Amino acid sequence: MADAAVDKGWATLLRRNGDEVVARWSEAAAQSLEGRMTRAELERDVREMYDALVAGVGEGDRHTLADASFAELRALLADVSHTRARQGFSSTETAVGVFALKEAMLGVLEEHGDLAAYRSFADFSRLIDELGLYMLEVYAQAREAVIGEQADALLELSTPVVKLWDGIISLPLVGTLDSARTQVVMEKLLQALVDTGSEHAIIDITGVPAVDTQVAQHLLKTVQAARLLGAECIISGIRPQIAQTVVALGIEFGDISTKASLSEALLAALRKQGTDVVRRTGRRDR
Amino acid sequence: MPTPVVVESGEIHEIHTDADVVRVRQAARTLALSAKLSLVDQTKLVTAASELARNTLVYGGGGRATVEVVRLGPRRGVRAVFVDEGPGIPDLDLALTDGWTSGSGMGLGLSGARRLVDEFEVSTDVGTGTTVSVVKWTR
């Protein structure tokens, strides 16, 4: 009796109608993934998943993804999820590839199945849900990893210290200044002050969207630390709306010099340094 | 006092990490733009939202922010409500004093945020949490 059930369940149906399942599966998946990947790529993915699934399905119809025989399938699904996450597919687009198998299987059932096969569809459906959830889980982890890498890259990239003149360095700040970034920024600036022997540093905040008390506090601390090294800081790039907000917040910049633009700050630093900037008159060729 | 304020659209954000504070700030900026607040008012609202979200995180131990576009008659505005279930504020007058802080900040967050917005309400109970609601209206 058990044998009869095995013979008529979804696993047998899946095994016997391989080509048809793969064709229907690809068809169903292609509807949601139209344009995101080529048909050939999709069919290859589907074929691989089919092979791994069939290889893992042993006797009977009740399986869970945790079965040892599914190790290969799990690895494959994880691989596919990783790739999709890195290629920028959405979570739906990632999981739909597996869920499309249900639709394909229903089609095959209509053609070849009998009552027993229909009965076993619930077991099949449960397994496919597990596969989909597993893919989503891996997808989420992969996305998180991508985001983490990007955050790290941003931390590295966004804090260049630029030498503007002998003894004058500039630090253009872009984006949000949270505690972690400020720490990096401050270290870089102080190190650059020591390395270049500069006495003037211009912190340009043109690219900082909002200056709240935390950002202001970080800026003030950086300026104080620079002073301990014998360097003077000028904060430049204060836009009108930022100025108004800072005043309303009640933040005092005290005796720290501030300028509206980087060029004004550079001029101020040059003057303090004793460098005169003179516009040449008369001969204008060269 | 309670005039019919219509909520047009809104977002809810959980606040549990520094990154969530940034998210709340971005939501406030997006909605301020869609409510057509002036550039200065946008910046003020975003800064106030940033302060209050950080307060929720640091002093309230995390919570939730609701940012929404509201309409009152012909005026539109952005309302931000910050809810935490933290220790509450024992002395609200003291907390609203410039320069006073129970932590390591500048002591301008709460009082400064009040000056940045048009409407400001705090309800707090020691032991049960704090709710701060602010609105910035178009001019």
UniProtKB/TrEMBL annotation, chain B:
UniProt organism field: Nocardioides jiangsuensis
SMART domains named among the record's database cross-references: HATPase_c
- Which InterPro entries does this entry report, sorted A to Z? HATPase_C_sf, HATPase_dom
User: Which SUPFAM superfamilies does the record associate with it?
Assistant: ATPase domain of HSP90 chaperone/DNA topoisomerase II/histidine kinase
Histidine kinase/HSP90-like ATPase domain segment(s)? 40-139
Organism placement in taxonomy:
Bacteria, Bacillati, Actinomycetota, Actinomycetes, Propionibacteriales
Protein name as it appears in the record: Anti-sigma regulatory factor
Superkingdom classification of source = Bacteria
